[in-house]
């Protein structure tokens, strides 16, 4: 445990999605965070991806809001282009030494205008584009880089190397380029560290047989850039000759499942990303032949199996064979060598070969682990225990994401939240001790008449080189209500902020417009300046005359100037109707409910309690422990968790209980705990975590289950062998029993791993027993692949069967057709173990509607975003973890339960809930209570309530629409659906938007 | 004045067809039913047990007897009845007096009396029973979908409707085409495609409806392409279609659409207000046949009216709307319109904008694509004689057809309330 | 809600050639970012489009679209995140519902099909954004001024 003088700050090493998630969770629950990234920008590999599976979401769309949020958070200090060089001290009081590599740029002065890039003569391979295109020696890591400052690559800069050039310094109007800057070192004090250093993609050069030297053999990461609309080929898939390939092959397990090169593990993500890429190809070019060569197809995640089936129906070929090599023919054509269904060698030509490269620990991990004093596994991933998947070998140092082992984005994000929760719990005493308190000066009175100030930005030459800025300024100053209009070279620079401050004071401005770049990145800056000058931040408006004008109308300066005037007029048209907005402070109850007393529920409750919050844990049975309660091998681990929960006086366990009649919303839920079907206890709670689990399918007749005495489910078998029951001479495991079929198309994820674990356990207990595993694809992802290897080494027999030809169990015989060798077998069996599907609880159908959260068609809870918000729902304050969300292994449940707790802490740690300022609201005198708004609200923020309405002096009862500010997220769809106009969205209200629309137009006769 | 329940309106088999060889099949089968025999989905023929109601009421007075029974036995607190002011006009009256109900026997079906809009005023305070045309009920259901009317509090008897006529027009036609003094007309009847007026002297005067409508002297235009003729959207769907000659004029065909409908019918039987027998298979078939003939005619008219409109240009539309004085009567009268006095169509409609087509019309066109029930009252009330019903339908037809959505017929969510239109690809 | 029309100090449309005015609604999260992306990558495009930013495409009210047309827009474009990518769960599904209706209505009014378009553009699709703008401007130029355009709009 941390000492009482612990520092309320955490260092997160690694600015990929995992690191960003940890940072956000911690910063949002009262800690200062140092986010340390070795590259010039945060974002990690996810920023390079095109679409993400299984939703085919645009990666940039879903990632960039998180990056922007991290970069703006007052409690997150970004340390990009920086590396940790030393660590001293101990848990609670670490001192990290961070080397801030020089960018040769005065970062405080660089405004990211990019004028320097154009003048740099040196072109080098662009790492972000995986070497497929060129960047300059002075560069942004990628166009949306955060922070938006340039970096000079000293190895390629002619000035730094040879002392000749200096173009960038000459062109920089801010004087930000300084070739003599040196690396700097900074010591930071933190209570805990999270290592989220991610991965490197396997470099396939060493696998010479795959001919990575050929221009049409590419890695999957390169291929991400091929399909990306903003990639080097603008999304047009092409061969090195620039033609659309007719045939594309994906080779799986390149750098994975290969002990010979010390990569025995499965990289977990490659099968599904190959499926994704194949679907992207098929979406654009259905005629292109796509083949995925795999050993087993491992699409084990939520929705992944269905995703692969879709690819299959799109015509993607899945070939169960690992090609032995790629041959380059004399004419340069590529030919794959692989084994066919009849063990014959097939040579097939392809135009493009994509190597599905695996994930490996970054080479720098070894050095970093040494600095941090933590252990790595033999592959360089951070070593953790099963029951503590986020804890390293050193107390106070946590890990998350692929740094700990291969995993996909949702698991990385969940683990990242989990690590945040652990770090937060550790430093609970110091929570909020370093939190930034923003002091807001009093607001100036705004009066009735709009008094608008306008700044038109030149952005160096970015705007000023195309748009006639003085003409725009002059035009703006003629518009009604404009009191002052001026131009600035860089409106985002610090000195300009003070000029804006002065303008607001000197001219008694009550509205402000900046015509510059995009509000998506810069609006908060100007809003803050306005606020400091006593102007409500919502009285500010942006006109985007760079991205939306000068940059895209480069060749028609006259039209660009004309448009810039229009855009300024539009902004003025809107801003004059702005009103001050304020976030509402909403009361919040600081306790939690956890539904379900299995591993997930218990872990979540423990985490919440350790973070300092009261928890009511509701278990429907009389015992804790859930599915693994009866398993001897988990007894010790489970006992520890249960003990922890039972002995913590912040956790109140309700046995034989359910939650009913829940009302309210985040921060203020109300519900009843019904115990033994009668006793009801009213409870107010702030958040709820759903951890209601799932169960093993018990379907009579499934491979003879409950009819044939030798048939057991996996759990039943595990229970038996844990008690050292033996005596089975011939054990046959049947995989996919009730999963991956028409009724349950999903893969139950955990069965393969459990099977190989149990097979090993039984084989070790009974070396003479014959064990057969009948499978469709062995899905021992990640490190579990080692278990699979071990099982085979122990002599467990694996036979692959076809979906359409399942094994038949009759009496003591199992008939199976082994499709790899195309032979029929009748196996003797005195025990048949079916890997029965994991199925959702029926009760979910009641809990879902009660909590206003959706279910998948298979009855599992449907998180709001399968990629980046794996434990959240659209309904704030409700979280999910464990098997209730989807089948998962013990350690995955633990990690996800911690994540749910972490997400909950970001709410519970606040003093009060703050509503967004841009809410929708109802004018009761206009609302007729028709309910058109109610169902369209994705957040269930709208209810119809009977109210006493006063209209024209008469008071009467009537049904009116009511918007809960705690649940509203400000999308405004209710305002659109309202036929009366009673609902409007502040800051985007009808009057403002209509004025903006009308301001687009003006009339010829008025010109003269 | 209305002409609902015309078993063989315009376009029906022409007179002079050879007489049928077999005698017509009987309308009913079996014995008089007990209340407990009545089931949802059942089709019956019934009549009032009261002689005077049978005599005064159209088709055996079943509807009157159900309403009277419901009021007397306390199933509802009020009944809406029509109080005749002349052969051509009537006003709806909300009453709790059963005598008013009996007195209304034989009243015309509510002509354009817009029950939707006044139910919206009263229904929250009381339970109300009323008879409705299909379009009235469609309006009521559209209001219900918008939380304005609580269907649990009202009981509706739907009446078959082949179309309605404007009172002023039928007076004019009586005088000019029939050459009869309108005040001498005692009853009207539609038979074999003819509109027959019976004068006080007992004389029958007949004109072909087809010919009348050619001169626009017949049913209101929207009725001619209306797609709902049997009010299966009400609790009970009543009418005389399917009542074979053996019961003609003496019985009403009733189909039970809801459990509430069954309850009210049982009440009428068990309370001694009405007698019912099971409708025979041929009777039900005959009713369906009339309906399908009517619908075919509507489909034909729909084509005649709307296909030429497809070639209309925006200039034509501007011309249609140019006389609009912005009085807003079309909106006030519109049954599915759920908004109050303020709505987007008025709030953002500023005459100063001087647009070629006002925002008011643009927004109304859009809103009615989702909800127009085709009642035609907008056209009726327009002081500028803009053919609004035709315009609203022109806009509503394509999307409602594409979504296979008939407004006001069931509880289906209005398309505008949907998150996603599964039907739309 | 009437507006005093402001005047422009200069106009580049003095040649008499038809210069379409196009209003485009962009959602904050994907399509506005896509428009930014087009800028970042310098994808050149005609200068006829005026972007109105909303948080979600489902905020775009028919009133806004009609007003744009009645004021003089020759085309109105709505852009949002791809289906499934909505920052607000399902806003774009709702946009699509309303769009279908508005589109059908404008068609019935006699408006040419291309004058109202809905397109999903992600943050990485700067090029698609530029192509969309280019394509629409070409189409609208071929169509000529909108039949709802006010006289005298520049």
TrEMBL record, chain A:
EC number: 1.8.-.-
Domain named 4Fe-4S ferredoxin-type: residues: 101-131, 148-182, 918-947, 959-988
Entry-linked InterPro entries: 4Fe4S_Fe-S-bd (IPR017896), 4Fe4S_Fe_S_CS (IPR017900), FAD/NAD-bd_sf (IPR036188), FAD/NAD-binding_dom (IPR023753), HdrA-like (IPR039650)
EC class name: oxidoreductase
GO molecular function annotations of the record: 4 iron, 4 sulfur cluster binding; metal ion binding; oxidoreductase activity
Pathway note: Cofactor metabolism; coenzyme M-coenzyme B heterodisulfide reduction; coenzyme B and coenzyme M from coenzyme M-coenzyme B heterodisulfide: step 1/1
Keywords: 4Fe-4S, FAD, Flavoprotein, Iron, Iron-sulfur, Metal-binding, Oxidoreductase
Homology family: Belongs to the HdrA family.
Primary role: Part of a complex that catalyzes the reversible reduction of CoM-S-S-CoB to the thiol-coenzymes H-S-CoM (coenzyme M) and H-S-CoB (coenzyme B).
PANTHER family: COB--COM HETERODISULFIDE REDUCTASE IRON-SULFUR SUBUNIT A (PTHR43498:SF1), FERREDOXIN:COB-COM HETERODISULFIDE REDUCTASE SUBUNIT A (PTHR43498)
Subunit structure: The ferredoxin:CoB-CoM heterodisulfide reductase is composed of three subunits; HdrA, HdrB and HdrC.
Protein's UniProt name: CoB--CoM heterodisulfide reductase iron-sulfur subunit A
Originating species: Methanimicrococcus blatticola
Taxon lineage: Archaea, Methanobacteriati, Methanobacteriota, Stenosarchaea group, Methanomicrobia
From TrEMBL, chain B:
Catalytic activity line of the entry: oxidized coenzyme F420-(gamma-L-Glu)(n) + formate + 2 H(+) = reduced coenzyme F420-(gamma-L-Glu)(n) + CO2
EC top class named in words: oxidoreductase
Alphabetically ordered keywords of this record: Iron, Iron-sulfur, Metal-binding, Oxidoreductase, Zinc
Keyword Translocase tagged: no
Cofactors required: FAD; Zn(2+)
Stretches assigned to coiled coil: none
One protein family per Pfam: FrhB_FdhB_C
Region listing for Disordered, in residue ranges: 1-34
Domain 4Fe-4S ferredoxin-type stretches: 315-344, 363-392
Identification of the protein by name: formate dehydrogenase (coenzyme F420)
Automatic annotation (TrEMBL), chain C:
Gene Ontology MF annotations: iron-sulfur cluster binding; metal ion binding; oxidoreductase activity
The organism's place on the tree of life at top rank: Archaea
Keyword Lipoprotein: no
Keywords assigned: Iron, Iron-sulfur, Metal-binding, Oxidoreductase
Span of domain F420-non-reducing hydrogenase iron-sulfur subunit D: 22-144
Residue runs in coiled coils: none
InterPro entries xref list: MvhD/FlpD
One Pfam assignment: FlpD
Protein name, entry field: F420-non-reducing hydrogenase subunit D
